[in-house]
């Protein structure tokens, strides 16, 4: 299923670059395209497609003729100009904090500094890793992210074969943080997303994930006991637990109906679309 705006509106929007978030999970994939307008973020397109149960194995994308057909058909409906951001499951990524050097560094010296640090921070040969970093001004440090190159290539291969050109792979937890931040919820709010046996959560400042926890109550007690408002979304289920409120990722966007029956399934795709462009 996919929804576009009317033809005239599409014609105007395709002159600009769409920011697209693509979230691929077992059983379904969801995508959101947005465009920055003077009044805020405009929803251009949403798309949802059923997939096989084993589309991901241990978080790694499995290529198949069925997946390629789905992605190729979707690509044909997109404009030529787009910035595609693809979600990467949290369990595939290693993260470590790194103190900033005493003397400020610029590229390429900063990249060399991070490469050298990665040699001791991660238990894998740095030549086998795709590295990225993000400034954490709250703690005056860098957050170093590492994913195995062969895993990234497995994700990239079917997308490339379908004619898609991802601009970036982004951590799923960071995507949830982005959409939670943009939703501007009341202080003390936490958004929880359930995907199979894994929970992701964010308060708009930080985000994390955990698997094999004994339900939402146990997660709340363990991870965010001080939360005063709990918003919940489930990739597969419209119902939400007692004591929570449904979360719609479309809240920060301007849009025309109809919207998906389960807006919560689009939480990560929306966060990916809202991701700022790298400079």
UniProtKB/TrEMBL annotation:
The gene is yrfD. InterPro entries: ATPase_NBD, FtsA/MreB, PilM. Pfam families: PilM_2. PANTHER family: CELL DIVISION PROTEIN FTSA-RELATED, ETHANOLAMINE UTILIZATION PROTEIN EUTJ. This is YrfD.
């Amino acid at each position: 299923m996919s929804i576009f705006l009317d033809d005239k509106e599409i014609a105007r929007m395709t002159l600009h670059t769409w920011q697209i978030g693509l979230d691929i999970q077992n059983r379904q994939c969801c995508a959101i395209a947005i465009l920055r307008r003077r009044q805020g973020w405009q929803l251009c397109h949403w798309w949802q497609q059923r997939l096989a149960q084993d589309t991901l194995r241990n978080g790694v994308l499995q290529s198949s003729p069925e997946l390629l057909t789905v992605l190729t058909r979707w690509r044909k409906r997109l404009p030529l100009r787009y910035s595609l951001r693809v979600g990467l499951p949290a369990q595939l990524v290693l993260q470590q904090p790194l103190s900033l050097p005493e003397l400020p560094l610029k590229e390429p010296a900063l990249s060399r500094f991070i490469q050298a640090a990665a040699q001791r921070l991660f238990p894998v040969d740095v030549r086998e890793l795709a590295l990225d970093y993000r400034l954490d001004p709250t703690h005056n440090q860098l957050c170093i992210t590492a994913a195995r190159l062969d895993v990234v290539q497995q994700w990239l291969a079917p997308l490339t074969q379908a004619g898609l050109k991802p601009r970036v792979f982004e951590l799923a937890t960071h995507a949830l943080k982005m959409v939670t931040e943009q939703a501007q919820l009341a202080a003390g709010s936490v958004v929880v997303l359930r995907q199979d046996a894994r929970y992701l959560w964010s308060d708009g400042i930080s985000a994390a994930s955990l698997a094999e926890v004994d339900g939402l109550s146990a997660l709340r007690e363990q991870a965010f006991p001080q939360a005063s408002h709990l918003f919940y979304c489930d990739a597969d289920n419209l119902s939400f637990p007692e004591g929570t409120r449904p979360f719609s990722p479309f809240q920060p966007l301007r849009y025309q109906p109809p919207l998906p029956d389960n807006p919560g399934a689009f939480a990560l795709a929306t966060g990916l679309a809202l991701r700022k462009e790298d400079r």
